Structure formats: C-alpha cells, structure tokens
Amino acid sequence: MKLPCFAAAALISLAGVSQLHAAPLLLGDKVEVRDLAGGLYTPSPALGDPNGLFADVRYRLNGGSEISTQAGMFVLDRRHVAPSVPTSWQQFLSFCLEPHVLVAPFDNPYTVNSLAGAGFGAASNAISELWGRHFGSINNDNTAAAFQVAVWELAWGSTDKNLATGAFILTSGGAVHSIAQSWLNSLDGTGPKELRLVALSDKVNRDNYQDLLTHQVPEPGVLALLGVGLAGIGLARRRSNRSQKA
After folding, report:
1. Is 68 helix (H, G, I), strand (E, B) or coil?
2. C-beta separation of 73 from 95 below 8 A
3. I need a surface site. Which of 86, 97, 108, 172 has the fewest CB within 10 A?
4. Contact of 44 with 230, CB cutoff 8 Å
C-alpha cells in the first residue's frame, strides 16, 4: 500500500521518547527510511482525536487540474546506514516538500541535505522562519494541515507567499486556508528561524520520490506531548484508505 506524503507511519508512546536523543542528522549522512508500523497513522496530542493530525485540502500545481489530498504532520522511522555503522530505528516528525509525490515506496538510502542542497534554497529562509514562528502552534488537524500547506507554498509558490497565486494554489478554503495564509503573511524575515532543518533526499533525486523536511535532532519534548495525548486514547484506529491523485 502506498502512503501519500501527508500520511503518518507510526504511533508515539511515552516509552519510546527516551530513544530520541541519539544520532542527530548530519549533512551528507545516509539514512534508511521506513514505515515500521505499516499503516496510515499520525500522532495526536488532542484527546478525542485518535485518527491523527491532518485535514482534507484541494490544490492546483503549476496550473494543472485540481487535486484532492490530505495534508498534515506525520511520523516515519529512520536509522543511519553511513558513514557509521547502522544505528537503531528512531521515529521522527516530518513534512513533505512535494505535494504531488507519494512517500512510499521508499527509495533508500536517503541523503541528508540542506534545503539548498535539495533544491529549495530560494525558500530555505522562509521555511526556517515558518518553523521558528509556528511549529509550536501545531495542536490539531487544522494547524497541522496549515503548516504543511504553508511549506508547499514556500517550496513551490516562488516567493509570493500567497495561496491564491503562483505555482501552488490552495483551492479549498476554511480554517486550513485562513491559518496557513496568516502564517505566510507573518514571514517578514524578522522572526525566529530554525536553522537545523534538513531535507532527506531520495537515492537518485528523481521527481517521483519524496523529499522529507525534518529537524536534524529529534525533538523529544514535542514527541512527549504527542505521546501524552495518545495515552488517554489507546491505540489509534486505522484510517480507511483514501485514494490520492499523483
């Protein structure tokens, strides 16, 4: 089963958070990325929301036809394979840099690149500011989806930061649109920037494989918060498969 770029791959538990302090991602490292849970799951910090943090959206890319998809924050598993000996598997939070490409099948190994090294240099400062200003605001479906949509706009919409124009156009409205646009409007270059972001690029950098935006160091505080929410819910229900145009 192929996972769309916005689908998560694993549940977070408080017991697993302690393992997330090791093996930071260094530029040039090779990592293997997997979906060890084997299902469409994403962590949820909100009690009563066992299906995870994402929402349905619609968009157009490069003037093409409208595409319906799901956007949000997801969790995958990674381990180092070079230059050191393989490390243990670690869960990590991630967002997609291409809205039209599926996460799986994985094209291992992935190379740890800067955003510029992965071809997103023009958007790197804005994405760093987006993360610095608003990553901490992700706490429900709409904010998770809005953050992903804002990443897509910055990566594909040139520098206009406008969801109504450019190469990436969000055609659905509602809370996701409003939040994402307000966050984009706040990016004036003066906000805090997260300078430790990296892109995991697939083995041969082909257009039909996904580049993953993530942090060089797993963030145990955030993952612990997500784990607390799940502790009151039990295991998340498997979300029914939804088709995605790609």
Report:
1. strand
2. yes
3. 86
4. yes
Omega into 99 within 30° of 0, i.e. cis?
A: no
Report the C-alpha gap between 244 and 246 in whole angstroms.
6
| Distance, CA of 61 to CA of 48 (rounded, Å) | 34
How confident is the model over 73-83, as a mean pLDDT?
A: 85
What mean pLDDT do residues 178-205 have? Answer: 93
The type of residue at 171 is T
C-alpha to C-alpha distance for 146 and 6, rounded to whole angstroms: 12
0.85 exceeded by pTM: no
Reported in sequence order, the residue ranges of 43-160 that DSSP labels E, i.e. its strands, are 54-61, 67-72, 74-82, 90-96, 110-113
> What is the per-residue DSSP string for 21-32?
GS----TT-EEE
Residue among 72, 77, 10 nearest 40 (CA): 10
Span 17-68, pLDDT tens digits: 334 345 799 999 999 998 786 544 455 444 556 666 889 999 999 999 999 9
Residue type at position 1 = M
Here the tokens at position 54 are 């994402």
Rounded Cα distance between 95 and 42, Å, is 12
**Both tokens of residue 64?**
């093409």
d(CA 29, CA 151): 24
